[in-house]
Write a structure and sequence with these properties.
CATH superfamily of the largest domain: Zn peptidases
CATH class of the largest domain: Alpha Beta
Radius of gyration: 27 Å
Number of helices: 12
Largest sheet: 9 strands, mixed
Number of strands: 33
Distance between the termini: 54 Å
CATH architecture of the largest domain: 3-Layer(aba) Sandwich
CATH topology of the largest domain: Aminopeptidase
C-alpha cells in the first residue's frame, strides 16, 4: 500500500501493541454506509478491518490512527484520518467504513480450547461499575484470569437486576506490548441497575459474584441561582484567544495577571519553496533559507539553456529572480543533471537558498524550466506571521505564591479545537461569578489558578487555515527530500512528546524520531518553545501543586505513569498507594462534576494511568510535571463517545465536532476544572 507521509501519526505510540483493545459486538453490524471523499479531501473515519494482520500492516506503515483500536467479532474497529486515495485503497483491501466521524471540510463541525486436559483458572473482577446517562443504564466490567498465557480463553459475564432480569455478554482479551492485561468490553446497555454480576471462563473458572458499584459515585455542589456560565459561542483561533485574554485582563484587573511566557514560538510561517521542473516527472525542490514572509514569497527561479557550447553550470540572482544556466558539452547539448543543479544552488547561494532532488529524479538530465515562484504555501492571509508570544492567565485574589496553585493548559495538539473553549470557559466562570457567588469567591480567594488556553498557537493557526488535522507545531526539522512540499501536512514536532521524563530519547514507547511522524519527538527533550513554556511557567511558580492537560477526543481521565519501555512493558514508577488513591478519589469527584452538566460519564475503563487506559505516550507533559516537579498532573480527553440508541453502538465525535457538540464539551469539562480547584483547596486544608 502506498502511504502518504502524514499517515505516520498518532499510532506511532501503538507500534508495539501486539493485540489492540478488544470488545465484543453490541449488536449485529448494520449495513455499511456509502462513504465517498472528494479529490484530495481528508476525513476521520471509523473502519471495520477484516483482521489484526491488516491493522499491523497499517501500524508498520505509520497510519494516522486517532484512538486505540478495538476488536469486534474478529474484525478490528479503528478511527483513521485518510484521504480519498487512501479510502479507495483501504476499501479495496476489505476495510469497511462504518462511520464518518469528521470530514476535513467540517471545520465548523475466538473459540475455546477443545480436546485438552485443562485445570480451571481463577477469575477476579478488576472493575464492575454501572451508571445512568441519557435515561440509559450501562454496565462495564474488567476481569482478569490466571490463565493469562491462553490466547483462546473466553470469559462471559452474567448480570442480574433487582427484578430478576438476567443477561450475559462476552469479554475479549486485551494485551498491551505483548503483555496480558485483562478481559473487558465497552459499556453495555442494561434494562435497569444491576445488582449482581458473575464471570465464568471456558476453562471452568468462576469469579465470585459481586455487586457493581455506582460510577463515579460523586456529585459536585449545586450551582446557585444566577450562576453565570456559557461564555463561548464559536470556535476560537489563537488570534481570538489572544483577544479574549486581553479583554479578561482589562475587565478583571484585581483578579487577573496576564503572563507573557518566555519562549516565543516560530510563528505562523514557513520557508518558501518551488518545484524547478515537474514533480510528476523530473524536478528539483528549491527552498528559501529565510521564511517566506521575510521577502522570499514570490521569488522566481528558472533554468535556461545558454545555447552555446562548452558552458559551465552558472547562475545569477538579480531582481528576485534566480536564473540557473545549465552546462553544455562541445556540441551545445545540455549536460547538467538534477543532482548537479541542486548541489550548485545550495553551494552558490547558501544564505538565500537550499535545493535537493525530488524523490525519483536523482541523476537524470535537468530540464529547461521556469519561471517557478517560491511560496510558503500558507493560506491564512489574516494570521500574524511573526514569532508568537504564548500567554497565560493568572487568576486569584492573592497572587503572591502563598496560595495553592492549579494549572490548566490546552491545545498542545493543534487540531483539538474544543480544548481552549474548555479552559477559557473555566476561567470566565471563576471571574464572572466572583462578585455574585460566595462559593466562587471563596475558591478564587483561596487558590492561585494558571490557565494556558493555547500552548501550540502556530499549529493551531495552521489547523484552522491550512490542514485541519494538523497535530504538531510548525517547526520543520526535516532534512533532504523529507522537506518536499508534498509533506507539508506532516512537518512539525508533537509538543506532547517533547518533554523530559519517559521520553523517546530515553527509550520509552510512544514517540518517534521520524520527522514526518505524527508523534515526532523533536531533536531533543524540550527542543520546542511550546513545551519549554509549560515547564517554565511551572518552574517559576512552585506553589502549583495540581495540573490538568486538556486534550481531545475520546472521553478519558488519566494520570501518570504515561509511558513504558517495550521489553516487559516496564512503566515509569507507579505512584504510591496513597498517591494512587488521591488520583482516583479526585478523578471520581471531577468525573462527577463533568457528568452533572448533560449526563456525560467518563467510563471507568478510561479512568486511570495513561499507560494503562490509553497507550504509552513517551515524553508527555504530565509525566515531567509529576516526576520532576512534584505536581499532581492529570489529562482530560474531552469529547466522549456518544451512545446511538438506533444502532446500539458507541460513536466517536472527532477533533472538531459541530460547534453544538464542542460547546457542550466546553460546558461540562469547565465544570470539571472548577471541581479540580475545589480538590486543590481541600488538599491544602487536609480534607482530601
Amino acid at each position: 500500500m502506498s502511504l502518504r507521509p502524514r499517515w505516520v501519526a498518532a499510532l506511532a505510540a501503538l507500534v508495539l501493541i501486539t493485540a489492540p483493545v478488544s470488545v465484543p459486538a453490541q449488536a449485529a453490524p448494520a449495513a455499511a454506509p456509502s462513504v465517498t471523499l472528494g479529490a484530495g479531501e481528508s476525513a476521520l473515519i471509523r473502519f471495520r478491518l477484516p483482521g489484526e494482520d491488516m491493522l499491523r500492516r497499517l501500524v508498520a506503515g505509520g497510519a494516522d490512527l486517532a484512538a486505540r483500536p478495538r476488536t469486534q467479532d474478529g474484525a478490528v474497529l479503528v478511527d483513521m484520518v485518510v484521504d480519498d486515495q487512501q479510502l479507495a485503497t483501504l476499501t479495496g483491501q476489505g476495510a469497511v467504513p462504518v462511520q464518518v466521524i469528521q470530514r476535513e471540510s467540517d471545520r465548523a463541525r475466538v473459540s475455546a480450547r477443545s480436546g485438552l486436559a485443562v485445570q480451571a483458572d481463577t477469575l477476579h473482577f478488576l472493575q464492575a461499575y454501572w451508571w445512568t446517562t441519557g435515561g440509559r443504564t450501562f454496565l462495564q466490567t474488567q476481569v482478569a484470569t490466571t490463565a493469562s498465557d491462553d490466547p483462546d480463553l473466553e470469559i462471559t459475564v452474567t448480570w442480574r437486576t433487582a427484578d430478576g432480569a438476567t443477561g450475559s455478554f462476552p469479554l475479549v482479551r486485551f494485551e498491551d506490548a505483548g503483555e496480558y492485561q485483562y478481559h473487558y468490553t465497552l459499556p453495555r446497555p442494561l434494562p435497569a441497575k444491576p445488582v449482581q454480576v458473575t464471570a465464568t471462563s471456558s476453562l471452568g473458572g468462576t469469579a465470585r459474584a459481586v455487586t457493581p458499584a455506582a460510577w463515579p459515585g460523586a456529585t459536585p455542589p449545586a450551582a446557585p441561582s444566577g450562576y453565570q456560565k456559557d461564555f463561548v459561542d464559536a470556535y476560537m483561533t489563537p488570534v481570538d484567544v489572544r483577544a479574549r485574554i486581553k479583554r479578561l485582563g482589562r475587565q478583571y484587573p484585581a483578579l487577573v495577571d496576564v503572563i507573557n511566557l518566555p519562549r516565543k514560538t516560530q510563528g505562523y510561517r514557513r520557508t518558501a519553496v518551488a518545484y524547478l521542473g515537474d514533480p510528476a516527472a523530473v524536478a528539483v525542490v528549491v527552498e528559501s533559507v529565510k521564511f517566506g514572509d521575510q521577502n522570499m514569497n514570490g521569488v522566481q527561479v528558472r533554468t535556461v539553456d545558454p545555447g552555446v557550447a562548452n558552458r559551465p553550470l552558472a547562475a545569477t540572482y538579480r531582481d528576485r529572480v534566480l536564473t540557473v544556466r545549465l552546462a553544455t558539452d562541445a556540441g551545445g547539448k545540455v549536460i547538467s543533471t538534477t543532482d548537479d543543479v541542486a548541489a550548485f544552488i545550495t553551494a552558490r547561494y547558501p544564505q538565500q537558498f537550499r535545493a535537493f532532488v525530488e524523490d525519483g529524479s536523482a541523476g537524470v538530465p535537468m530540464p529547461v524550466t521556469g519561471p517557478a515562484r517560491l511560496d510558503d504555501g500558507l493560506e491564512g492571509a489574516e494570521v500574524p506571521k511573526g514569532p508568537w508570544t504564548v500567554q497565560a492567565l493568572r487568576i486569584g485574589k492573592v497572587r503572591d505564591g502563598s496560595k495553592p496553585g492549579v494549572l490548566a493548559y490546552s491545545q498542545e495538539h493543534a487540531r483539538e479545537w474544543a480544548t481552549p473553549l474548555v479552559t477559557l470557559e473555566f476561567a470566565e466562570r471563576l471571574l464572572a461569578n466572583y462578585a455574585t457567588d460566595p462559593a466562587t469567591r471563596e475558591l478564587v480567594d483561596s487558590v492561585d489558578v494558571f490557565v494556558i488556553p493555547t500552548v501550540n498557537p502556530d499549529g493551531a493557526n495552521y489547523s484552522f487555515n491550512d490542514f485541519n488535522f494538523q497535530r504538531k507545531n510548525l517547526v520543520n526539522h526535516c532534512t533532504g527530500a523529507a522537506r518536499d512540499p508534498r509533506n507539508r501536512d506532516s512537518w512539525g514536532v508533537d509538543v506532547n512528546r517533547n518533554y523530559t521524563v519517559g521520553s523517546y530519547f530515553d527509550g520509552y514507547v510512544g514517540g518517534s524520531g521520524n520527522c514526518l511522524s505524527g508523534t515526532y519527538a523533536g531533536t531533543a527533550e524540550l527542543s520546542e518553545n511550546e513545551s519549554g513554556n509549560v515547564i517554565a511557567l511551572a518552574q517559576a511558580h512552585p506553589n502549583i501543586g495540581l495540573a490538568m492537560n486538556v486534550h481531545s477526543y475520546g472521553g478519558y481521565f488519566m494520570w501518570p505513569p504515561g509511558a513504558y519501555k517495550a521489553d516487559g512493558r516496564v512503566t515509569l514508577p507507579r505512584p504510591s498507594i496513597d498517591e494512587s488513591k488521591f488520583f482516583l478519589d479526585s478523578a471520581r469527584r471531577i468525573v462527577g462534576a463533568i457528568a452533572s452538566e448533560r449526563g456525560t460519564v467518563t467510563w471507568p475503563s478510561y479512568t486511570g494511568p495513561v499507560a494503562d487506559v490509553l497507550y504509552s505516550a513517551a515524553g508527555n507533559s504530565a509525566d515531567q510535571l509529576y516526576y520532576e516537579l512534584g505536581i499532581d498532573a492529570w489529562d482530560f480527553e474531552v469529547g466522549n463517545d456518544r451512545w446511538n440508541e438506533a444502532t446500539q453502538q458507541w460513536e466517536g465525535v472527532g477533533f472538531q465536532p459541530p460547534f453544538d457538540e464542542a460547546h457542550a464539551e466546553s460546558q461540562e469539562y469547565a465544570g470539571g476544572l472548577v471541581e479540580l480547584v475545589r480538590v486543590a483547596r481541600d488538599k491544602e486544608a487536609g480534607e482530601q
